[in-house]
Automatic annotation (TrEMBL):
Sequence segments annotated as region (Disordered): 23-52
Coiled coil: 185-271, 575-602
Keyword Amino-acid biosynthesis among record annotations: no
Signal sequence coordinates: none
Compositional bias of kind Low complexity: 23-47
Sorted UniProt keywords: Coiled coil
InterPro entries attached to this UniProt entry: WW_dom, WW_dom_sf
Domain WW as annotated: residue spans: 447-479
Name recorded for this polypeptide: WW domain-containing protein
Classification of source organism: Eukaryota, Sar, Alveolata, Perkinsozoa, Perkinsea
Amino acid sequence: MQIIRVAFAAAAFMRMYEQRSQVSSSQHRSAVGKSARTTTSTASTSREFSIQQSMRESTIGVLQIYKKQCKRDGDFRGARETNTRIGRLKQEHAIAKREGMILRHAEELHNLQRTIRSQIYAYFTEWETRKLSSLKMAVDEIRKALSRRQQREREDFIEGLENGRVKYRVTLPPLTLDLMAKARYMVLQDRHEEAKQLMLEAEERELERKLKEHARQQGKLARIRNEFDARQLRERRMTEDKIRRMKEEVLKHQRLELEELRSRAQQQLDAPLLVVSFGQKYSGPNSNKYKIEGKYDIPVNYKAIVKWGEDEIVVLTRQGPFGPEFQLIYLPKSSVADDFTLFEWNSNMTQLWDELLTVLETMDEGGTRDMSVFNQGPWYIFGFTEDAVQTELGKVVKKDETDDLVDGILYCQEGDKPTLEEYQRYLGVQPELDDHFIWISHEFMSEPLPANYYQYTNAGMVYWVDASTQESTWKHPHYDKYKKMLSVAREQRPLPHWKTIMNFQIELLFSELFKMDDPNKTDFDVPIETVNNVFELARIFKVNIKEEPYLTHVLKRALRHYAGIVKSKRAVGDVEEFRNLMQRYRDIVQQFERAYELESEQVASLRQCVECPEDNKEPAELRSFTVTTAKICFASHALTGFIPKDGDNIINGLGSSSASAQSAKRRWLSSIAFNAKTLSVTRVSSRTDSFGSRCFAELRPLSQVHVRGGRRNHVPIVLRSFSPSVHKVPASSTFAFGAISPAAVTIGANAASNLAISMSPWLVFEDECEINVYYNLLTGECQRDLPLAPINTSIESGIGGGFSYGWAESLTCT
């Protein structure tokens, strides 16, 4: 009986609760509608909902106890009815909780709108009091400065006219001079009347000419004044247009800020969304991968938090090697700090979304939480398609036009060498704005790395290793130089022509060298002809000084020339002249090469067998044997030829033993020890080495002490066959076949030595103490000691034509 009474009491309580719930739901709807207008009613409605919620929970508890009692007593029908009522009460309880949440959101929105209104009012007040007044003052100052400038120019022009700065050259016409000469002749013959008539006519002509000249001057002055007035009018119009554009920009900025505030006030989502970082809009290659439905942009470095009840879902984005990548973090409300679910970075948002829904369904086993909010998909839930997010991305892109966003990593999608587009993206080049500066990316891509740097690729990302320190870096060794070049090019806007580009790079080189950006810089005494500057100028002129080391002297001359120009703040030019000078150097070195080849052919033609027939000469093989006391050179079966001591002629052969005996006092014809293609002039008797004239000149100071003789361990005696004062050594071989004197052939030419000097990789530089330093272009070796190899010096004016000698001039030796 007690159980029946409890059941009847519960049923009565349920009926009373249903009636009260209907009344409370109607009151709740009216409260939700009026929540935006009054805050007091919202608070009272919230208190009523809390009371109703506690009543529902108590009723559900009583009904659950009654259901258990019915099951124990076997009253299954009552248990089913009670279970049905419990389910309906739970559903109503969930609906009431959702409506309470909506009520709280309405209250928060009302507070936000009130805050935004106060911010808008404060912003307009500040703009009217500060910015508008400063703008008006700036416009007035511009107008005053323009009027003062126009007045000063007018006064200077009038003063110049008054002081006689504008002078006109006046000369008498020939006809007037003839009349005056005739009048003078008439006076000499006492024909005064005729002379007077001629002078009157001359005066009339001169007066007419002066009137015309005065009219011409007046017309010119009027034309100058008209031009001056027209220029003033143009400047005034330009100033007015500038002021109008400034006003339009201020109004546009104001309108955009108002739209932003309104969009933030009107922004509503089915689930609460907090955008921590809007990120940036992607503007590189393959931009279609960063689009949603072809119209919404997927931001990079985007971060937002979505509230689901008391739980939170965090979404992150980043730029991956092949497209956008996403990461999700689910943070349920829990007292345990490690109670969260982390989803790894993935480029497939659909897969991440499915994994998230699986986790959420697992967490909501009882089905009491509302999952319908996730039916709109990830792009809408996470705010990617919201107008506020897309508008903010557009503003970030406009800001990035001046402040370049650089990822800091050079990506390489295919192979181990990045493409031009990847270099542009790494450097921060914007194709739609920097179309004329594509050459900067080409230069950045083609310039070789320093000698101690090596490039590697890992997972589509490029990094560099310094071999000297074994340190790796994501930053290209030349990144700062080309980033600075791009920034200066955006300011100066050089034309895409090779002369203009070279002038721009040269000016940038010396501006960085002299630090022209510093207004307090007055000392320009810095080293100019350094190794780094020579290599940089060679890169600008597109020359390879490792293959053409003689062009280094032209580059040094160009460094001195352009340093003076930049110091005096003049425009850089004369690029074509230095290119012509380089071509002149190339022509001279090619002349040395041709002369060296010609000399080699002449030497080979002289070294022939003397016993062979004239029409079938064979090359001689030098051999030595003792005839009396002399060493004689033979071919395979004959002698090659001899040079007499006095150098009169060449004996082309010997046919008998008497000739062999006569040749005992002669010196045999051979090549020098350092060059097999040049004939020897001198010979060391104690050795088998032979020397040319230049080699002997270099060795002679060492052996002057022992000219008269020496002991076995001393420097050997140097025997001289010819006198350098009688036979002058030419710079190149200019003699022809068939008319060659023995002395000229034996002396040869300096073409080989000149060619060796021009192609030598060793060059002389000066350090900060003006001490010579020898640098090797091929190996990068630097030393203070004089190397044994030839030193590359500048071509003299009298060698190979030089720069002051013409091509038609030649040096002959007979």
